[in-house]
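WARN  no MSA supplied for this record, continuing single-sequence
INFO  ligand: GLP
INFO  echoing inputs
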Amino acid sequence: MRIIKAKDYDAMSAAAARIIAAQIALKPDCVLGLATGSSPVGTYKKLIEWNHAGELDFSAVRSVNLDEYAGLTPDHDQSYAYFMRHNLFDHVNIDLKNTNVPSGINGDGECARYDQVIRDFGGIDLQLLGLGVNGHIGFNEPDDHFSLGTHKVTLTESTREANKRFFASIDDVPTHAYTMGVRDILQARRVLMVASGANKAQAVKEAFFGPVTPNVPASILQYHPDFILVADEEALSLL
Ligand SMILES: N[C@@H]1[C@@H](O)[C@H](O)[C@@H](COP(=O)(O)O)O[C@@H]1O
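INFO  complex generated
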């Protein structure tokens, strides 16, 4: 595990974006595992900037996103499909046909379909992650075992509470989601996490300086052979 300490959110975003840009430069048709939430937004802004400057080419890049709320259509403004178009895809020269977000409305067959998409791509070259305040990755919530492939989860109240800021009220926050499993994430050849702010400090400490346990899903990344945490000073403040 490598930790890159950044001064603040902007420095964290630039450092993470450099790692992603290097991946694209090394393998122009790489498979990027992408994440939503406020943590990666600054990283995406940097990538957009470099794409516009002609320094970064997304034309052959393929992508698979981590998760999606159950019940939200891709045009719902809080769906992760919408988030990705708004925060990245619409602003770079990626071919939308090469991008994938789990469907929130396909029902039971979606999990197997999505894992097949990842397999058909030959796996993920670089998986970008945020960190939930309860240590979740994607929507893999604390549990008594680590999950395997894509599956449907019941969101914890703490996650719904943390994410309600994006919705009109807590009642509008979906109760379920589809997420890649922990195994899918661990099988990525490189994993890059961005964490920012004092509200992530406890989760960072428990995930990377405590025991590996499914009760803190991110802790399994301690076993990943190529895991990079890029965090700002506040997120590292409890270490
Ligand atoms: N499913 C997403 C996660 O992938 C994300 O990492 C987490 C943290 O979000 P934020 O970066 O906004 O704190 O939020 C959601 O629950």
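The first helix runs from residue 9 to 26.
INFO  checksum written, moving to next record
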